[in-house]
Specification:
The complex is a heterodimer of chains A (about 290) and B (about 400). Chain A is mostly helical and about 290 residues long. Helix content of chain A is about 70%, strand content about 0%. Chain A contains 11 helices and 2 strands; from the N terminus they run H-H-H-H-E-E-H-H-H-H-H-H-H. A two-stranded antiparallel ribbon of chain A has the order 1-2. In chain A, a hairpin with a 4-residue loop joins strand 1 (about 135) and strand 2. In chain A, helix 2 (about 45-60) crosses helix 9. By secondary structure, chain B is of the alpha/beta class. Chain B has 2 domains: about 25-145 and about 280-355, Rossmann fold, CATH 3.40.50; about 145-275, Response regulator (Rossmann fold). Chain B is about 45% helix and about 20% strand. Chain B has a 6-stranded mixed sheet with strand order 2-3-1-4-5-6, with helices on both faces. Chain B starts with a helix and ends with a helix. The chains are: A mainly alpha (about 290), B alpha/beta (about 400). Chains A and B meet through helix 1, helix 4, helix 9 and helix 10 of A and helix 1, strand 8, helix 7, helix 8 and helix 9 of B.
């Protein structure tokens, strides 16, 4: 197709899916937080970075391996998130959206700046876990086992999150609490606690993505800075606050970006933003947004 | 939204960077990337190197204090030019050094000419700085795309790596490095099978690596730098590129990137640098002092910043004035004789010609102590590594 062998094309689509896994995980967290708290969480990239660093610390300071980190790092990041929500965000929940955005943006600068000061920008190496080393020859490409695992893990976590929010009683409480917090509180449900847990859960997803990313990219203080802007574009395209929208859009845009890298690599860093602009013009509420 | 916030943050950092001091006799500015992909390649470590040079010089010249200012240009030519303009016009800066990132260096060098000041480029690579874009006041210190091309490109082609595919950073530096290396490859009887341009500051290289893999080229030349190079090398290992028989050539890889990667991922990589700390007593002496201050060994950009600043200060002292014409003349007359530029001399186009080193990254087993990363393959004489004045295309 267009002078590119079909085999190379399959390879690129698969790579796009891998990148899409990160977009989906991160935009999902953002969508959950925006949907429930109405906070535009600019600290998401910094917390993703924190997840990767948590895994690196765990391995190098305590000898905790990758699999435990996959469980523990999101908990640590979630805890940090809970503190951020209780100490900062809870105080400004009645103010304009802009305050939340500025606050989280400032936090991101502080967290990333602090790590950069201590660890520099070239990052730390984190090895691939023993079980997932090596690669499988798929015929059309050499597929590193670890990247296959990334797609599977992110799919499982994404749909589990979707299921909890859309299909369980807890999710129903959550959704009700965003519609009418006073009424839900009147039924004896602790709404502030639920809000804190939602924020913690949302950023824990970022922490999880950070651990997944650690063996692929350098564990660097800068790893979240650029990603976060792309992920925001994904959320906007999918529709702010739409859970399923952010998952599907994440994978979709990952693949599209991957294909751009073959046909016109120079545009690969902007293609997502071009799509965002087009979607905003044609469907301001996003592809999956319901609009007001 | 974020753009506005960033602009605001940028404006305030510019304001912060320029705290003026009236009593200083000579003022030196270190302008480079302190927060992005090149923050370890140069960054605050270069600032530390400049401080060391000023201290070693004695802290004063022409009966006045030597002052140092520093700022982050964020790899953006417009940001860099604005800071440089403010430094020259308002703060009385006499010389700007380091200038990592070719696009910024080219912009600031042009401005320096208009303002009749001095600039010493250390971290940027493009050979155009002393080629068609040369100026009477612009100097280029540590290395350039031509030296890297002759070193890594020439050596690998001669030793059998005669077909190349390039992964190129999509800006001035990447183009120039690819062009110069492609020429060195062809001059040595090799051929170039293709190239792909990737955006600066890219995280995922798998797509580009796959294209390089399908090309079946024997050598994959990485015409990028900093964190981009680190990520490419790390990911190339995942996709079985090196085990598949293809060789990676980090065209601009320094000790800072090797340190970030670790020897396990970087072993076997062939690089060209203008300095390595463990070459002789002089280089070790500087390296150890730098390590004590910063906790890391210097690469050629850090050591080169020291050397450039030192040479400038000596020239100011010898000329007895900081007038740019007189100082530039002295800098070109005087030989550069320090631990960095051994037998170094400055050509009329501002190119500091000195010995370069072709180095190979050790395996973890070969490395005996911390920072023991390279073994020396060969020394490249300055005349061979850099363009002569005639070849450079500089018309002054």
């Amino acid at each position: 197709m267009f002078g590119v062998p079909a085999q190379a094309l399959y390879g690129q689509i698969l790579l796009g899916l891998i990148n899409g896994s990160f977009y989906a995980l991160l935009s999902l967290g953002l969508a959950v937080i925006f949907g429930m708290l109405n906070v535009i969480n600019f600290a998401h990239g910094a917390l993703y970075m924190l997840g990767a660093f948590a895994a690196w610390f765990a391995l190098n300071l305590f000898g905790i391996d990758y699999w435990w980190s996959l469980l523990l790092a999101p908990l640590v990041v979630g805890l940090v998130g809970a503190v951020i929500e209780r100490v900062f965000l809870a105080r400004i929940k009645n103010l304009d959206h802009l305050y939340g955005l500025l606050l989280t943006f400032g936090l991101a600068l502080i967290i990333e700046g602090g790590f950069r000061h201590v660890y520099g920008s070239s990052g730390q190496a984190y090895g691939t876990p023993e079980e997932l080393r090596g690669a499988v020859n798929l015929g059309f490409m050499i597929m590193p086992k670890y990247r296959g695992w990334v797609v599977i893990a992110s799919l499982i976590v994404c749909f589990a999150t979707w299921f909890i929010i859309e299909k369980t009683r807890l999710g129903a409480y959550l959704r009700a609490a965003t519609e009418n917090p006073k009424l839900v509180q009147a039924f004896g449900i602790n709404v502030p606690l639920m809000i804190t847990l939602t924020y913690a859960g949302g950023v824990a997803l970022a922490g999880f993505a950070g651990v997944l990313a650690a063996p692929i990219y350098q564990v660097s203080p800068l790893m979240g800075t650029n990603l976060i802007i792309v992920v925001f574009a994904v959320v906007v395209v999918g529709g702010m606050g739409s859970i399923m929208g952010s998952i599907v859009t994440g994978y979709m845009l990952g693949v599209l970006e991957g294909l751009t890298k073959v046909f016109y690599p120079q545009a690969s860093s902007i293609v997502i933003f071009v799509i965002m602009a087009v979607v905003l013009l044609a469907r301001p509420a996003g592809l999956f947004g319901r609009g007001d | 939204m974020k753009r506005h916030v960033l602009t605001l943050a940028m404006a305030s950092s510019v304001a912060l960077a320029s705290v003026a001091g009236a009593s200083a006799q000579v003022k030196i500015g270190i302008l480079n990337d302190q927060s992005g992909v090149y923050a370890d390649f140069g960054g605050k470590w270069s600032v530390e190197a400049a401080k060391m040079a000023i201290e070693d010089f004695g802290g004063s010249v022409l009966n006045g204090k030597i002052e140092l200012v520093t700022a982050d240009h964020q790899n953006k030519p417009d940001v860099g030019s604005n800071i440089a303009r403010q430094w020259y016009d308002v703060d009385g800066v006499d010389m700007i050094a380091e200038l990592t990132t070719s696009s910024v260096a080219l912009a600031v060098q042009e401005l320096t000419k208009q303002k009749k000041k001095i600039n010493i480029v250390v971290g940027a690579a493009t050979s155009r700085l002393t080629g068609d874009m040369c100026t009477p006041y612009g100097f280029h210190w540590a290395y350039d795309t031509r030296a890297l091309a002759v070193g890594t490109g020439g050596a690998l082609t001669k030793s059998g790596g005669d077909s190349w595919f390039f992964l190129t950073a999509d800006y001035a530096f990447g183009y120039q490095l690819e062009e110069d290396t492609a020429k060195a490859v062809k001059d040595n009887g090799g051929k170039v099978l293709g190239a792909v341009k990737h955006p600066l500051n890219n995280a995922d290289f798998s797509s580009f690596l796959l294209q390089a893999q399908t090309s079946k080229a024997k050598v994959i030349g990485l015409a990028n730098a900093g964190l981009d190079t680190t990520n490419t090398i790390k990911q190339a290992a995942d996709f079985g590129i090196t085990t598949g028989g293809q060789k990676l050539a980090g065209l601009l890889t320094t000790l800072a990137e090797v340190h970030g990667l670790g020897l396990k991922a970087a072993q076997g990589l062939v690089v060209t640098e203008g300095y390595y700390w463990d070459l002789d007593d002089q280089s070790r002496e500087f390296g150890e002092r730098f390590l004590k201050r910063t906790g890391r060994m210097p690469n050629m950009v850090h050591a080169g910043t020291y050397s450039g600043v030192m040479h400038y200060l000596k020239a100011v002292k010898a000329a007895g004035t900081k007038d740019a014409d007189a100082v530039a003349k002295k800098m070109k007359e005087t030989a550069v004789d320090d631990f960095f530029g051994k037998g170094g001399k400055v050509l009329a186009n501002g190119r500091m010609v000195h010995e370069m080193y072709l180095l190979e990254v050790k395996t973890p087993a070969e490395s005996k102590k911390p920072w023991d990363y390279y073994k020396l393959i060969s020394k490249i004489p300055g005349e061979q590594a850099f363009f002569t004045l005639e070849q450079s295309g500089c018309k002054l």
